[in-house]
């Protein structure tokens, strides 16, 4: 029995729409009841919010295209100024469709110009008797534009005296949008995250034709069992499913197992999914490199990603700064004179180490050090003279941004900043080579 029903639209179109938006039938049904019939006035503005990859953009595009409703679809990240945004809306409206080639340039400097040109375009398109939908994706960017843009879009139906509905799509709640000046609050609609059952249903629809749906559904179930706790993004999960399916099928292709032998298939795919947690999910290597590693049966230690700590490209002095930071984190302060001065005098070995310092510092973890100690070690390990320029200090900030160094405690104005080195000995050895 079909879930979507509306007297204004053909049953065949609604059935097709329902097949295209699985697990979002309740949201689509709500939108259809809000939209009403083509000639009826809808809400002046609708605000749709939800986390990333919850189907907001896809559902709106599919709904408007399937039912062939007149609309304009604009991404506010691409058109990041008010002039670009207003001109793009007019261009799409004049060209008749968001997918056709762009029309001639329409200069639009103010919102008053936009209202005037918008009325002309609506009459030219013959849309006076039906609702026109303006969809603004990534609408949180409107907050960076002029203060009048967002309130004006919320009242566009009133300003133009036209049957137009503005739909705002965003990942943040309306309370973070509301301007300081009075504005018309939109109708809000929430898109919840997909549950594990929804993800199972959606991903299982993409099964290859040469395998049965039950076989592919069992593979998706295994994939979600590994990744669901750390990744709910449908796009990422679809990418991982497509990338690792060939490895899951290997025992079946070689004739070592049948499609129902779940235990053998799981034992074959388990180590590769663990490697995928380290590389593909973090996008440290490309898909082609990952497939090449799978064919070569590479071990996790052979992966050429940051998580494997084999190599990283850094500027010349950043490498020395990282080595100096490692030495400062794992060597006691009282050893600096012995290690980094040529004429350090005699040191009695019996009393040199304190009792607690005889324990390996690698077991105790990195210790914080001040900036002046880091620079002092740097000057002693670099062959040529290094001036303490702004370039050196900016490279320290970059290492913190890359999470190779971390700030330890608050940045005290009197004592200066303190850091910790967060990389391993193997990483430092690779840098030192």
Automatic annotation (TrEMBL):
Keywords: ATP-binding, DNA replication, Nucleotide-binding, Nucleus
The keyword Aminoacyl-tRNA synthetase is annotated on this UniProt entry: no
Subcellular location, record wording: Nucleus
Chief localization: nucleus
InterPro entries: AAA_16 (IPR041664), ORC5 (IPR020796), ORC5_C (IPR047088), ORC5_lid (IPR048866), P-loop_NTPase (IPR027417)
GO MF annotations in UniProt: ATP binding; DNA replication origin binding
ORC5 lid domain segment(s): 216-283
A Gene Ontology cellular-component term: nuclear origin of replication recognition complex
Taxonomy, superkingdom: Eukaryota
GO biological process, one term: DNA replication initiation
Positions of the Origin recognition complex subunit 5 C-terminal domain: 314-433
Domain Orc1-like AAA ATPase: 21-167
Assembly: Component of ORC, a complex composed of at least 6 subunits: ORC1, ORC2, ORC3, ORC4, ORC5 and ORC6. ORC is regulated in a cell-cycle dependent manner. It is sequentially assembled at the exit from anaphase of mitosis and disassembled as cells enter S phase.
Similarity remark: Belongs to the ORC5 family.
Function: Component of the origin recognition complex (ORC) that binds origins of replication. DNA-binding is ATP-dependent. The specific DNA sequences that define origins of replication have not been identified yet. ORC is required to assemble the pre-replication complex necessary to initiate DNA replication.
Protein name in the entry: Origin recognition complex subunit 5
Native organism: Formicarius rufipectus
Gene this protein is translated from: Orc5
């Amino acid at each position: 029995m079909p879930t979507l029903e509306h007297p204004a639209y053909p049953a065949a179109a609604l059935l097709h729409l329902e097949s295209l938006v699985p697990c979002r039938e309740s949201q689509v049904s709500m939108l259809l009841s809000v939209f009403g019939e083509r000639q009826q006035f809808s809400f002046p503005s609708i605000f749709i919010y939800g986390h990333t990859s919850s189907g907001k953009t896809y559902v709106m595009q599919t709904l408007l295209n399937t039912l062939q409703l007149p609309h304009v679809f604009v991404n506010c990240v691409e058109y990041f100024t008010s002039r670009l945004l207003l001109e793009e809306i007019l261009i799409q409206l004049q060209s008749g469709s968001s997918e056709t080639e762009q029309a001639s340039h329409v200069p639009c400097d103010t919102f008053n110009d936009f209202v005037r040109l918008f009325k002309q375009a609506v009459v030219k398109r013959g849309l006076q008797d039906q609702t026109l939908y303006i969809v603004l994706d990534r609408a949180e960017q409107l907050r960076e534009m002029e203060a009048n843009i967002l309130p004006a879009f919320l009242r566009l139906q009133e300003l133009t005296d036209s049957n137009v509905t503005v739909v705002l799509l965003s990942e943040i709640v309306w309370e973070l949008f509301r301007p300081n000046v009075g504005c018309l609050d939109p109708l809000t609609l929430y898109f919840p995250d997909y549950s594990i059952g929804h993800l199972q249903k959606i991903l299982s629809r993409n099964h290859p034709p040469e395998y049965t749906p039950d076989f592919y559904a069992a593979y998706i179930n295994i994939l979600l069992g590994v990744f669901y706790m750390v990744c709910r993004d449908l796009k990422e999960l679809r990418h991982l499913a497509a990338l690792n399916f060939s490895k899951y099928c290997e025992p079946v292709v070689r004739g070592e197992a049948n499609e129902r032998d779940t235990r053998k298939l799981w034992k074959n795919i388990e180590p590769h999914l663990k490697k995928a947690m380290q590389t593909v999910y973090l996008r440290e290597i490309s898909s082609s490199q990952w497939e090449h590693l799978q064919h070569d049966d590479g071990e996790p230690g052979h992966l050429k990603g940051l998580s494997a700590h084999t190599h990283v490209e850094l500027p010349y002095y950043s490498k020395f700064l990282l080595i100096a930071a490692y030495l400062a984190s794992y060597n006691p302060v009282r050893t600096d004179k012995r290690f980094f001065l040529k004429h350090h005098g005699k040191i009695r070995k019996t009393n040199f180490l304190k009792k607690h310092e005889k324990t390996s510092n690698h077991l105790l973890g990195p210790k914080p050090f001040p900036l002046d100690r880091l620079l002092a070690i740097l000057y002693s390990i670099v062959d040529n003279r290094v001036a303490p320029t702004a370039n050196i200090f900016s490279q320290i900030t970059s290492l913190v941004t890359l999470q190779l160094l971390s700030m330890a405690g608050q940045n005290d104005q009197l004592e200066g900043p303190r850091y910790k080195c967060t990389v391993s000995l193997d990483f430092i050895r690779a840098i030192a080579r």
